[in-house]
Amino acid sequence: MTRPIVANISAAALRHNVSVVRQHAPHAHIMAAVKANAYGHDVALCAPVLAEAGVDAFAVATLEEAETLHDLRLERPVCLLGGLFDAKEVAVAAARGYLLVIHEQRQLLWLAMHAADAPLRLFIKVDTGMHRLGFAPDQLSALFAGLQRHPHWQVLGLMSHLARSDTPEDPFNRQQAGVFAAAVAHFGHCTAGQHTLANSGGVLALPFTHHHWIRPGLMLYGLSPFAGRNGAEIGLQPVLSWRSEVVAIRALAPGDWLGYGATWQAPAHCRVGVVAAGYGDGYPRHLGSGAPVTVAGQATRTLARVSMDMLFVDLTVVSAEIGASVVLMGAGGPSLESLAARLDTISYELGCRMQMRVPRQLVS
């Protein structure tokens, strides 16, 4: 690749963030969420570093994502958070020994049809109030009665998901944790006791949600799950540094128009840099004019509309020439959290937006 755009992925930051997880939940086992290509950071780069840092298992969303991890041969259990989506997936999942999350009766029927005698390891998803996936608590008695017909299957524990851990003070967190605790009290003896509830917000701020397994995701990549706070403020280090370069410079006179739609007009003489990055790479078009960006180590802003392959930056008061380094977001530039706030979205989305044509590079 010769186009000067790259996403640097910091191994040191990943290791640091795992240590922060350990500090907050020293007695829990870490199931690192690496779904959606490690939240856009590249699972093939991140997962080996996370394994070396001591995470105990990985969590993914699909069988295809699990297969990518299998090919990396990291010798860690892999959990399919969404379970199986089709009976055709049973054979591969059983052969690989993936940990399967069961959230509806249909999945159990598939397993009974195609893997009744396989030594499967399962989590039972409980709906504690989010109403996305899982069995209602009053369905668990019949569910566990039915599981007794399959002695080869091991239920590792109960699983649920926190809906409002991004606002730790919200009483709904205690409500969900209470529903989960009641389910554990009634049915924990039917399992191996490896229950799991906490995501990143729970790990950091809700210790009463810590069980045998915790499932950090966003915080592993140095990002804050809490609105109005960035990762650095809670002791995390950004893993991503999305970079490019100035590939052209234009001198504009007062009144000159810039970019598609002629939406930005120079108010005075100014210098404008053209950067090799655009919405085709995943840089949000709606950031538009005024988004912070760092050029040659100096803070400046974007101008005009973002194109598919290019965007503009203001160089009027910045000492930079063609070839100058540009940090679009992440370490050394504006945080993903701050840019997400400008877009009224979340940092999860910005990482996942980054397209595969942006090469990822592991750095120390």
From TrEMBL:
Record-annotated active site: K35 (proton acceptor), Y260 (proton acceptor)
Binding site for substrate: R132, M308
Cofactor field: pyridoxal 5'-phosphate
Pathway annotation from the record: Amino-acid biosynthesis; D-alanine biosynthesis; D-alanine from L-alanine: step 1/1
Catalysis: reaction(s): L-alanine = D-alanine
InterPro entries per UniProt: Ala_racemase, Ala_racemase/Decarboxylase_C, Ala_racemase_C, Ala_racemase_N, Ala_racemase_pyridoxalP-BS, PLP-binding_barrel
EC class (word): isomerase
EC number: 5.1.1.1
Keywords: Isomerase, Pyridoxal phosphate
Stretches assigned to the Alanine racemase C-terminal domain: 239-363
Keyword Isomerase: yes
GO molecular function ontology, one term from the record: alanine racemase activity
Chain positions with N6-(pyridoxal phosphate)lysine modification: K35
Matches recorded under Gene3D superfamilies: Alanine racemase, Lyase, Ornithine Decarboxylase, Chain A, domain 1
Role: Catalyzes the interconversion of L-alanine and D-alanine. May also act on other amino acids.
Family the entry assigns: Belongs to the alanine racemase family.
Classification via PANTHER family: ALANINE RACEMASE, ALANINE RACEMASE, CATABOLIC-RELATED
Name of the molecule in the record: Alanine racemase
